[in-house]
Write a structure and sequence with these properties.
single chain; Thiamine biosynthesis protein ThiS; 33% strand; mainly beta; Mopterin_synth/thiamin_S_b; Beta-grasp_dom_sf; 66 residues; globular; ThiS/MoaD-like; Ubiquitin-like (UB roll); 5-stranded mixed sheet; 11% helix
Length: 66
Amino acid sequence: MKLVVNGNQYEHNGEGTISSLLGELQIECTKAAVMVNDSVVKRDQHSSAGLKPGDRVEILTFAAGG
């Protein structure tokens, strides 16, 4: 399914959930905030929130720094 992920076209081959997308991108869900079409998706909804072709997904990852 074709998505726009962080402003770039992306072909997602998974089951169509945020969890499967994060897994495909090798991003730990505990270290990311996700928005789909400008709406924040809570972490406990990542495995149930479905994605549709053309959805705009923004993934913000957290990194420690000092």
